[in-house]
Design a protein that fits this description.
about 240 residues, mainly alpha, 12 helices, about 0% strand, globular
Amino acid sequence: MNSDFTEGLRGSTPILVSTIPFAALFGAIAVSNGQTVAEATLMSAIVFAGASQLVGIELFGHSVPLWVIVLSIFAVNFRHILYSAAITPFIAHFSPLQKAVSFFLLTDPQFAQTLTRGETGRRVSFAWYMGFATTIYVGWVSVSAIGAGFGRLIGNPAAWGFDVLLPIYFMGLVLGFRKRSNFLAVVFVSAVVSVLAQQLVGSPWHVSIGALAGVILAALLPPKAAAAPAAEGEDKP
């Protein structure tokens, strides 16, 4: 049990390093949009969803109606419904309370690593899951507070080029699945539909619409057939 937790901690340490700029960016943007350091830190602690936090904080700063903010955050986080469905077979042995905690802590890297671990035949224990999630959660909340504290020194984060970090982060996650069947087709359709949805429907709905298009295509396309094993007695090349 302890070894699983420790393994999770070790596995998520590189993720923490890549998460630090985003957490600091959120804290800085939150302060620039009128939140206090305490409010920005509390939002990271109870929402814990980087992309939707950035969307929400921008909308807060423009005095947008609350229902629009809620729907926008739901649109960005809609992919988590797909994430939770994908990992459910590997955490079916969790208790209801453990599942509730797991889904709260479900992030993009958590999903990717849980799916990879489960599909390669390794058991996804609750101890491993919590070890992996703890590093990311504590780091995200702590660095958000630091970013908020120094936010006024940074000024406009976009002027420093920090606004490109989030797209780069998601691109890295996508490329992590490049060896899967029909990867290029799914990515292409998702990208095209997302761009069209941004023009026709608007942000942030284009994120979920593009993701849904990719999921539908992946479900329709047959996976690539694995190479057939050599017949008994047949010479191998």
